[in-house]
Write a structure and sequence with these properties.
Distance between the termini: 55 Å
Strand order of the largest sheet: 6-12-11-10-9-7-8
Number of helices: 22
Number of strands: 16
Strand content: 5-15%
Structural class: alpha/beta
Helix content: 40-55%
Radius of gyration: 29 Å
Length: 548
């Protein structure tokens, strides 16, 4: 009956409303699933009249609906896209196919059209490493392509368990939980914290990644955005709440678009002082910092972690009981950058991991990553943990490029990390610079525009890898210099004349020293102790809640 009515009148809201009135009027005395009557004749007449009136009303409503104009969906979409084109924030994708056996080379649409990639987040080039690829091939042959379901339904397997154990070991936490991406991990964890702690107050750095911003929004709790790396402002905000109020400080270690670095130790000090939890995103730091590639938190106590290997140091570099990494409550990271794979994770205490596993929709209701992806990530983590030379060579190549740009007056936003952000300051010019590099010099560097960065701070983001030799670096340096001349882009002296921006040409700006010291850069793989294990680390038992 219902199908024939919808076929006749159309599925409009007015029709549905009329049908609801029809069903209500047709049985005005419905009780216990049956229609009651006060007299057979009267009931029959009433029902017939009501049905006729309702049908007429439905027909009239449907006729009115067909005369109304529908919402202009395409007009809205076209308008929004046109706005992005006009303000130069429209995103254009380059067809870049990175070559496993020739990286950092890639080909464009035609295989003969090769370019050198200078903006990949595959920081250590592990996506092409033979050990990583071999692990993935073997796992595909054994377990196939997909995981087969969510973790709860057919998606929990040996590669998953081993990967979470590796991640827990890397960050020296009791457990870890893998997500489909770190965007999902950040959103899932932050939103859950707010949903379960209604009085929670979140303190977020203004340059936090979009995934953290979205997670905090979904948390639906009170929040404060503090100026980037401004710990004085952060403390003022924290001290305005009683210690009994639940608090969370959300921040990153390396901020990917500017290369700035958080003072993790001081933030932990503030968290202890005011009773706050800490949430640290190490996405752009894992693999690149610390003796074993656990990130900036590990790098803060470099010598203690280097000497202790996988084991938890008895003291930090200052002789205190806990290391900086120990003090951070939650660390999120990615498998898709330095580890050359895909996916994200959170490492934390056993109870927190079990809590996320049990309540986070972003974990519960999505298919598990393929076993081969997990196996590749495991191989990458194990390899990089024992190969300090990957990190040191990446740092040397970064320093080489930064120094050359400095000597040429090419404006690099100053930072102590591996990111080389070349300031352009104009969206249209940034795209033109990127286009000239790829079309004239066969160098791929993507322009970074709004909303990834603020308008007026557009830039080229360059990321050297261990595979970018000095010869390739010289080609890049000359090409960028040529582009600056061709487009007459502002150099450091020009920014100085304008008062400076983001540390470029700013009077009195003090540049931070590189995170890697000269003594750390002189270390070799033989200086690591990767086989020193801590018998009290229980990540194999507690990861994923396998054993309680």
């Amino acid at each position: 009956m219902q199908r024939s009515i919808f076929t006749r009148f159309g599925n409009s809201s007015a029709t549905v409303s009329a049908l609801n009135r029809l069903s209500t009027t047709a049985a005005p005395h419905a009780k216990n699933g049956y229609a009651t009557t006060t007299g057979a004749g009267a009931a029959g007449a009433t029902a017939t009249a009501s049905s006729t009136n309702a049908a007429a009303a439905a027909a009239a409503a449907a006729n009115h609906s067909t005369q109304e104009s529908s919402f202009d969906y395409e007009g809205l979409i076209d308008s929004e896209l046109q706005k992005k084109r006009l303000d130069k924030s429209y995103r254009y994708f380059n067809n870049i196919n990175r070559l496993a056996k020739e990286f950092p080379l890639a080909h464009r649409q035609r295989e003969a059209d090769k370019v050198t990639v200078w903006c990949s987040n595959d920081y250590l080039a592990l996506s092409k490493h033979p050990e990583v690829l071999d692990a993935m091939h073997k796992t595909i042959d054994k377990y196939g392509c997909g995981a087969g379901g969510t973790r709860n339904i057919a998606g929990h397997n040996i590669p998953t368990m081993n990967l979470e154990a590796e991640l827990a070991t890397l960050h020296k936490k009791e457990g870890a939980l893998v997500f489909s991406s770190c965007y999902v991990a950040n959103d899932a964890v932050l939103s859950l914290l707010g949903q379960k702690m209604k009085d929670l107050v979140i303190f977020s750095d203004e340059l936090n990644h979009a995934s953290m911003i979205v997670g905090i929004k979904h948390a639906n709790v009170k929040k404060h955005i503090f100026r980037h790396n401004d710990l004085n402002e952060l403390e003022k905000l924290l001290q305005s709440y009683p210690k009994s109020v639940p608090k969370l400080i959300a921040f990153e270690s390396v901020y990917s678009m500017a290369g700035s670095v958080a003072d993790i130790e001081k933030i932990c000090d503030l968290a202890d002082k005011y009773g706050a939890l800490t949430f640290l995103d190490e996405v752009h730091a894992v693999g690149l910092y610390g003796p074993h590639g656990a990130g900036v938190a590990e790098h803060c106590d470099f010598e203690s972690h280097r000497a202790s290997g996988i084991a938890t140091p008895k003291t930090n570099d200052k002789g205190m009981e806990k290391t900086v990494m120990d003090r951070v409550d939650m660390i999120t990271g990615t498998l898709g950058k330095s580890f050359g794979s895909v996916g994200g994770y959170v490492a934390a205490s056993r109870k927190l991991i079990d809590w996320f596993r049990s309540f986070a929709p972003g974990f519960i209701f999505t298919t598990t990553l393929p076993p081969s992806v997990m196996a590749g990530a495991i191989a990458a983590i194990r390899y990089q943990r024992c190969h300090l030379d990957l990190r040191t060579s990446q740092q040397r190549h970064t320093m080489y490029v930064k120094k050359a740009f400095h000597d040429l007056g090419i404006p690099v936003i100053p930072n102590p990390s591996h990111i080389v952000p070349v300031l352009i300051g104009n969206a249209d010019l940034a795209k033109q610079a990127s286009d000239i590099l790829i079309n004239k010099h066969q160098i791929y560097v993507q322009a970074i525009n709004f909303p990834t960065v603020a308008r007026g701070t557009e830039r080229l983001r360059i990321t050297p890898t261990p595979g970018h030799t000095d010869d390739l670096s010289d080609i890049l340096i000359n090409a960028v210099d040529d582009v600056f001349n061709e487009l007459q882009l502002p150099r450091v002296r020009d920014w100085e004349n304008q008062g400076g921006l983001l540390g470029v040409g700013e009077a009195g700006f003090v540049e931070e020293p590189n995170l890697w010291t000269s003594s750390q850069l002189s270390l070799t793989n033989d200086d690591l102790n990767p086989n020193v294990r801590d018998p009290i680390i229980r990540q194999l038992e507690v990861s994923s809640g396998i054993k309680q």
